[in-house]
Amino acid sequence: MNAEMMVHPYYSVTDESGKLRFTDVPPATYQIVAWHEGWTVLDKQKAFDVLTEREVQRPVFTESKAWEKSVTVSGNQTSVVNFALGK
After folding, report:
1. I want to staple 83 with a disulfide (CB 3.0 to 4.6 A). Which of 4, 30, 34, 45 is the partner?
2. Where are the domains of the chain?
3. Residue 13, number of CB atoms within 10 A of its CB
């Protein structure tokens, strides 16, 4: 599993260890939200894949979860936000 993060105009994808990095972010305090679509597949729904032009089965997950943290970015310093995702 990987994650993608976009905060206009910044974009990042997690590395092999789940870390991501933004560079040249202006100093300020930001709210960072980690979101997960759900932990368990409840069902599957029929959907139409426009690329293959075929009907496919799309998983339906349990309720999504979100975790939020505040981080202050100072000029020319590294700021770290860690999330431990769990049920």
Report:
1. 34
2. 4-73
3. 10
Look up residue 11 and give its amino acid: Y
- Written as six digits, the tokens of 45 are 């729904």
- 65: number of Cβ within 10 Å: 14
Query: Residues 60-82: pLDDT tens digits?
Result: 888 888 888 898 998 888 888 88
Beta strands in 1-87 (DSSP E): 4-7, 10-13, 28-36, 41-49, 54-61, 65-73
**What residues of the chain score a pLDDT lower than 50?**
none
Using CA atoms, how far apart are residues 28 and 76, in angstroms rounded to an integer?
A: 12
Alpha-carbon gap, residue 63 to 55, rounded angstroms? 25
Q: Supply the pLDDT for residue 77.
A: 85
